[in-house]
Structures are given as structure tokens and as C-alpha cells.
Design a protein that fits this description.
Layout: H1 2-24, E1 54-56, E2 75-77, E3 94-96, E4 122-124, E5 143-145, E6 167-169, E7 193-195, E8 214-216, E9 224-225, E10 238-240, E11 248-249, E12 262-264, E13 283-285, E14 300-301, E15 304-305, E16 311-313
Parallel strand pairs: 1-2, 2-3, 3-4, 4-5, 5-6, 6-7, 7-8, 8-10, 9-11, 10-12, 12-13, 13-16
Antiparallel strand pairs: 14-15
Length: 325
């Protein structure tokens, strides 16, 4: 009789455990991604927490996105693996696939493969082997990171419609002016921050979104700044042009930027301070150039001039007293 009671208690305990597990992860056929036999199955030791919609799969040495990930997952971290294929997971907010092998083959990241992720806010594809910006991305993305790839072309079609993109990082790639097309950022009408540092640009790109507030063009091959280079960027507040090969700036090239606060022109080959700088500037960095003179209208022109309260930095320059240039 005692043995029967023990068996019944054990069965009751098993039933309770099953009910509790179903409460946290209901085994509904539509709530889990079903894996084909050839792909790795998601296992509990890859889960950061069994009670949070966060999946931690970084540094696991996997070469595929694991299947069996809970349908309600909101954050999937897959950094530092060898992944070169992707599978869908609805409802995702943040997806990080940095430091992988995406881009090795034509099927690595097929067009529009991420488009069903209609709630995705942040996509990190840093340090892969992508040769172009992925096509058909979700319009919901606000932050897109593509640093350290092999991107040489930004074709139109990354967003099929007006996107919500605010931040785009394309630094440390192989972009040239020919690779940035008129339609590349046509639908990024809300973009505020664009990082193009460390590419192969020889002039300031054209057709940039008027909404930009921060533009980083440092570490490129730009030789000169034309007068109309920034004429459409009325909202620009921060501009980085350091570590280029700039030797000439057209008169008033920066004058068209009424709210520009920070301008960095360090490590170029300028021989004089640019003329007619914006009157709202707080900081101008001109160190490590070949500056020999400060023109009369560099900081003072028109009806107003830059006030002494503004921080103007001209460091490590060999300045002469010739103010007639």
C-alpha cells in the first residue's frame, strides 16, 4: 500500500512539473520554429534565461541559426560564431549577428529574408563579409550597424518604402562615390546619424538625407570641399572630416550649415583656416594641418561674428601673421 502511495505521489509531482513548464513555454505548434534535420536544434544551455524573451547564443561555435527558439523571443544574440545562413523569428526587437561569416555565398543573406521581422528595431551585422547592404530590410529598423564588412556598393532597395532608420554605421568598408547611388538612402528620410568613416570616398557624397544631424566622413580620401557640398544639410550639427587629404575648402562651404556645432578637420593638408565658418560653431578642430594663415573672414563675416565664448581650437599649426589670404 505504501509503495502504491509513493508511485501516485511521484506521478502527481511529474504532472505538476509538466503543467508548470507548459505555463512558461506553451508547446503550441505555431509558437516554435520547427527545425529541419540538417540544422542545429536550440538547446536550453544556449538560453540566457528560461523566463525572459532573451536568447544568448554568442561564442557557441555554431554555423547556423539554431531552431527551436521560443516564438516570443525579443532579443537574440549570436555574436562571434560562424553563421552564414539565417532563419526567421517573428516578434524580434534586437538581432545581433556581428563577428560571423555572413556574405560568404549568394544564399548567405537572401533578399528580403529579414522582411518578416516587422518589429525589429536594431540590427547588428558588424564584422561579417557582406559585399553590399542587404536588400528588403524591415522598415521598422531604427539602428543598422554594418561596420567592418566588405561593402563596396549601396544599391537602392535596402528599404522598400519609407523607413524609420535613425542610425546607420557603414564605417570600415570599401565604399566609393560610385558605390553610393542616388537611390541608396532615398527612403531613409528620418536618418539622423550616418557614419562613413574609413571608406574610399574621394569627395563628399551627394544625395544625403536632409534629416542628418551627424555625419562622419573621417579617414577617407577626400581632397577638397566644394561650395555646395553641404548645401542641403540644414540640420547638420556634427561634421567629421579628419584624416582625409583635404588641401582646399571653397569659400563659404560650411556657411550653409546654420546649426553646425562641431567641425573636425584635423590631420589634413590645409594651408589656411577655412573662410566664412558657420556662426553657431562651438568647436573647430584644425590640428595637424599645414596652416600658415587665418583669413580675415574666417570667424568674422557678415553682420555677426563668432563670439569669444565659442571654443575655437587651432592646435599644432604653424601660423603666420599674414591675414590677407
Amino acid at each position: 500500500m505504501l509503495k502504491i502511495l509513493r508511485v501516485l505521489l511521484l506521478l502527481l509531482l511529474i504532472i505538476i512539473i509538466i503543467i508548470m513548464s507548459l505555463h512558461h513555454f506553451p508547446l503550441h505548434p505555431h509558437k516554435f520554429l520547427q527545425p529541419p534535420h540538417s540544422l542545429p536544434l536550440f538547446t536550453p544551455n544556449l538560453l540566457l534565461s528560461s523566463f525572459l524573451p532573451v536568447v544568448q547564443c554568442s561564442d557557441k561555435g555554431v554555423d547556423r541559426v539554431p531552431y527551436g527558439i521560443p516564438y516570443n523571443a525579443r532579443y537574440i544574440l549570436l555574436m562571434n560564431n560562424h553563421i552564414d545562413t539565417w532563419a526567421r523569428c517573428p516578434g524580434l526587437l534586437v538581432l545581433s549577428l556581428s563577428n560571423n561569416s555572413l556574405g560568404n555565398g549568394s544564399e548567405s543573406l537572401p533578399n528580403a529574408v529579414l522582411s518578416p521581422l516587422c518589429n525589429l528595431r536594431t540590427l547588428n551585422l558588424d564584422h561579417n563579409q557582406l559585399t553590399s547592404v542587404p536588400q528588403g530590410l524591415p522598415l521598422s529598423i531604427k539602428e543598422l550597424y554594418l561596420k567592418g564588412n566588405l561593402i563596396g556598393q549601396f544599391r537602392g532597395g535596402a528599404f522598400n518604402g519609407v523607413s524609420e532608420l535613425l542610425v546607420l554605421d557603414l564605417s570600415a568598408n570599401r565604399l566609393t562615390n560610385k558605390g553610393l547611388l542616388r537611390e541608396s538612402l532615398l527612403n531613409a528620410t528620418h536618418l539622423e546619424s550616418l557614419n562613413l568613416e574609413g571608406n574610399r570616398l574621394k569627395q563628399v557624397p551627394r544625395h544625403l538625407p536632409r534629416s542628418l544631424k551627424t555625419l562622419n566622413l573621417e579617414g577617407n580620401l577626400i581632397l577638397s570641399i566644394k561650395k555646395a557640398a553641404f548645401s542641403t544639410l540644414k540640420n547638420l550639427e556634427h561634421l567629421g572630416l579628419a584624416r582625409n587629404k583635404i588641401f582646399k575648402v571653397a569659400i563659404g562651404a560650411f556657411r550653409t550649415l546654420p546649426v553646425l556645432h562641431q567641425l573636425d578637420l584635423c590631420h589634413n593638408t590645409l594651408r589656411q583656416v577655412p573662410r566664412q565658418l558657420p556662426q553657431g560653431l562651438h568647436s573647430v578642430a584644425l590640428s595637424n594641418n599645414k596652416i600658415q594663415s587665418v583669413p580675415r573672414d574666417a570667424f568674422c563675416w557678415g553682420d555677426k561674428s563668432l563670439t569669444l565664448s565659442r571654443l575655437i581650437r587651432v592646435q599644432s599649426c604653424a601660423l603666420s601673421n599674414d591675414g590677407n589670404h
